[in-house]
Design goal:
The chain is mainly alpha-helical and about 280 residues long. The chain folds into two domains: about 220 residues; about 50 residues, no CATH class. About 80% of the residues lie in helices and about 0% in strands. The protein has ten helices and no strands. The chain starts with a helix and ends with a helix.
Length: about 280
């Protein structure tokens, strides 16, 4: 099917928006803080440009390029999710170590699930690979949506600012993933509107790019530690308990739990006075 003018405009707008974000991250020295997200923008820009070239000059190979790029997007998107998670929980080294382990096992589980799906499908080899990649992509999108919901419900407990770069990246990734999943479901139910719905999905991604442009260009608020939150004791207890099992930096955890140690010292002094 020939690409329509709106589709071309959306694709070019996507490239321009991503190039602007790349330049903005370089200008504001955000590349070192979010290297994976920076790579995500670069990969998306190159992928969109390559997709346009293949579509116009080598259309017969377009489907192979499309699924190859989709797989790369999925893998980098999973790493972006991991990077945001680590950035948000910086004050809690033990929780981060546990999260790293959970992310590794989640990746292994996704690969096993995709492999089993491919082997259990009675279809040509190429179709099996496509189905496995599609399953992985949907699972990563679900994880991104889950991260967005987690941040929304626990934003106060983590004492996060909605204007922080990590939160803005997470919101954009989660919103894009939720729209993509919704559009994929609608396309399966309304195949006649496949290309129209795909255009809507692309426009939604441009909206996310616009959100990132404004958010990353805004002044970064002072980072407030989760330990400053009135409800900090939950994460503090998790961090201390995990530190006891060998996770995280013991020295950092000890210094981070200074106030609880002072409280325990005061209790011991008062107990001694009562005994005397």
């Amino acid at each position: 099917m020939k690409m329509t003018i709106p589709q071309i405009v959306v694709a070019v707008s996507s490239i321009i928006g991503q190039l602007y974000i790349i330049a903005l991250m370089v200008k504001r020295n955000l590349r070192s803080s979010f290297p994976v997200f920076f790579a995500y923008m670069v990969v998306n820009t190159l992928g969109t440009f390559l997709g346009l070239l293949v579509y116009f000059y080598a259309y017969q190979q377009y489907v192979y390029v499309y699924w190859s790029l989709s797989t790369i997007y999925m893998l980098v998107g999973f790493l972006v999710l991991y990077e945001v998670f680590i950035n948000i929980l910086k004050p809690f080294s033990a929780v981060i170590d546990l999260g790293k382990m959970l992310f590794v096992w989640a990746g292994v589980f996704l690969l096993i699930a995709a492999s089993l799906t491919a082997m259990a499908t009675s279809a040509p080899h190429a179709n099996r690979v496509v189905m496995a990649c599609d399953l992985l992509d949907r699972c990563v999108h679900l994880m991104q949506c889950g991260m967005l919901l987690l941040l929304i419900f626990f934003e106060k407990r983590l004492s996060l600012s909605w204007r922080s770069n990590a939160m803005c990246i997470a919101i954009g990734v989660g919103a894009s993933a939720s729209v993509d999943l919704t559009i994929s479901y609608a396309q399966s139910r309304l195949p006649a509107l496949y290309f129209q719905l795909n255009l809507v999905n692309s426009i939604a991604f441009i909206s996310v790019l616009a959100f990132w442009m404004v958010a990353l260009a805004s002044k970064q608020p002072a980072r407030s530690k989760a330990t400053d939150s009135p409800s900090r004791l939950i994460l503090q207890r998790w961090n201390e308990a995990l530190t006891g099992y060998g996770y995280g930096d013991v020295a950092y955890a000890a210094s981070d739990s200074f106030l609880p140690n002072v409280e325990r010292t005061v209790d011991r002094v008062l107990a001694r006075k009562i005994v005397h």
